[in-house]
């Protein structure tokens, strides 16, 4: 080996040594940074009160939750009110998220953790928190759930073959570091229907229910005089008898109803609302609800609501009302008026949207007229088979056969009178 070759070899040794030292120092620095990050807050001091816009996006799916003057709204559902409790819970959890593990991961490893960018199958769900001027406060990429095997099932779900989720892989902003947090965020998805406020109509104490079908002969109307009174079928024919048990099945419509989603179609004919079934319900609280029910699609009916209040203006005193009772009854009357007006104002908020309501909620109410009547019994034919066309015939009882009375014993002979004594 000559001097030139030896010099080249020494230079290579120095370069490789320097490179090794640099990589070692970088790794040590990364490990120290990783270790120092554990236990720290993932998003730092997140100003949750400044958050006014939340965007959830994964692939082509996107949801925008926006804070307006009258509350949080879901943009993709025509600004329908959002579920504030769900949003508040998410923001408070995000504020307190802590890092339980930190790793430096190269771009080629991100798809395995469902943290890849773009619209592919392994893409991350991007959560962006913005202020009222739509400036980004924090951006968080949610990846694959962290699974734990063995032990007891956690709050995140039942344990399967892969274990149960006890956290999630996440990435903050443009950082190369991937963190593991203890929240799985299983319900944080870019699905608009999941973020809607599902509180809905509560129609109570009905006194009149009428359903008008497109086919007029199927329509019916039920009324009652008191809250505990029996229902009566209006305009009943002589051949029609209301079945009380069937009437009770439609007696409390929408007393605890909910809905699945808000329709985004704008044309009535797309939802069958150009030729709807119309339901009218009046209550003992002087409220009238008109429901337009469209076609059934994917186990849901399209539904529109209008509300009207007609409280009595004055109270008519009772015939035998005592003067000392007047003040109390007047107060009760005024309070009832106020409650009626408040509930009408609250329920009128439902008038601006078309709802998709499950079939099991509305089917009991949408019974046809014949389904509310007492079923006609089939009369038997002469040969013993049923004859639906023959009138009902009564069977005469067999004539009774008189049973002869037991013979009476012969009467005893009358006693012979004694002769009169001689004088």
Number of H/I helices: 5
Share of residues in strands: 25-35%
Q: Report the strand count.
A: 19
What is the count of distinct domains? 2
Broad shape = elongated
Class computed from helices, strands and strand pairing: alpha+beta
- Enumerate the strands of the largest sheet in spatial order, edge to edge or round the barrel: 4-3-2-1-6-7-8-9-5
C-alpha-based Rg, rounded: 41 Å
What does the largest sheet look like? 9 strands, antiparallel
Distance linking N and C termini: 199 Å
Low-confidence stretches: 27-36, 390-410
Q: Kindly state the percentage of residues in helix.
A: 10-25%
| Order of helical and strand elements | HEEEEHEEEEEEEEHEEEEHEHEE
- Mean pLDDT, to the nearest integer, reads 83
Overview of the structural elements:
With 423 residues, the chain is an alpha+beta fold. The chain has 2 domains: 34-189, no CATH class; 206-372, no CATH class. It has helices at 3-37, 84-95, 244-248, 323-347, 359-362; strands spanning 53-58, 61-68, 71-74, 80-81, 101-104, 125-130, 136-148, 164-172, 177-181, 206-212, 220-223, 232-233, 261-262, 277-283, 287-297, 300-309, 355-358, 379-380, 386-387. The strands form 3 sheets. Strands 4-3-2-1-6-7-8-9-5 form a 9-stranded antiparallel sheet. The protein has an 8-stranded antiparallel sheet with strand order 12-11-10-14-15-16-17-13. A two-stranded antiparallel ribbon has the order 18-19. Strand 14 and strand 15 form a beta hairpin.
């Amino acid at each position: 080996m000559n001097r030139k070759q030896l010099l080249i070899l020494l230079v290579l040794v120095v370069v490789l040594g320097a490179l090794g030292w640099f990589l070692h120092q970088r790794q040590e620095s990364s490990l120290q940074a990783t270790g120092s990050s554990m236990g720290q807050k993932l998003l730092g001091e997140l100003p949750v009160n400044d958050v006014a816009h939340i965007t959830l996006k994964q692939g082509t799916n996107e949801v925008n939750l926006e804070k307006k003057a009258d509350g949080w709204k879901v943009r993709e559902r025509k600004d329908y009110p959002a579920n504030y409790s769900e949003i508040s819970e998410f923001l408070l959890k995000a504020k307190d998220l802590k890092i339980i593990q930190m790793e430096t991961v190269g771009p080629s490893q991100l798809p395995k953790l469902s943290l890849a960018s773009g619209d592919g199958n392994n893409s991350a769900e991007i959560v962006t928190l913005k202020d009222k001027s739509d400036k980004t406060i924090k951006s968080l990429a949610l990846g694959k759930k962290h699974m734990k095997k063995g032990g007891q099932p956690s709050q995140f779900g039942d344990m399967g073959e892969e274990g149960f989720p006890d956290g999630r892989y996440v990435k903050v902003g443009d950082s190369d570091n991937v963190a593991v947090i203890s929240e799985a965020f299983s319900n944080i998805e870019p699905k608009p229907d999941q973020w809607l406020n599902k509180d809905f109509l509560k129609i109570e104490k009905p006194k009149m229910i009428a359903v008008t079908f497109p086919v007029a002969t199927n329509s019916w109307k039920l009324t009652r005089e008191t809250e505990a009174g029996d229902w009566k079928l209006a305009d009943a024919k002589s051949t029609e008898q209301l079945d009380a048990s069937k009437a009770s099945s439609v007696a409390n419509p929408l007393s605890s109803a909910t809905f699945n989603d808000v329709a985004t179609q704008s044309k009535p004919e797309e939802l069958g609302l150009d030729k709807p079934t119309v339901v009218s319900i009046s209550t003992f609280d002087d409220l009238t609800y008109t429901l337009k029910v469209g076609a059934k699609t994917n186990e849901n009916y399209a539904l529109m609501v209008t509300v009207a209040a007609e409280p009595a203006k004055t109270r008519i005193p009772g015939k035998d009302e005592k003067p000392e009772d007047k003040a109390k009854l007047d107060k009760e009357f005024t309070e009832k008026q106020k409650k009626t007006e408040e509930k009408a104002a609250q329920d009128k908020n439902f008038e601006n949207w078309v709802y998709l309501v499950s079939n099991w909620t509305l089917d009991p109410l949408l019974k046809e007229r014949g389904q509310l009547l007492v079923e006609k019994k089939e009369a038997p034919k002469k040969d013993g088979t049923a004859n639906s066309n023959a009138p009902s015939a009564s069977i005469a009882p067999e004539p009774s056969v008189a049973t002869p009375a037991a013979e009476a014993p012969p009467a005893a002979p009358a006693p012979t009178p004694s002769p009169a004594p001689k004088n």
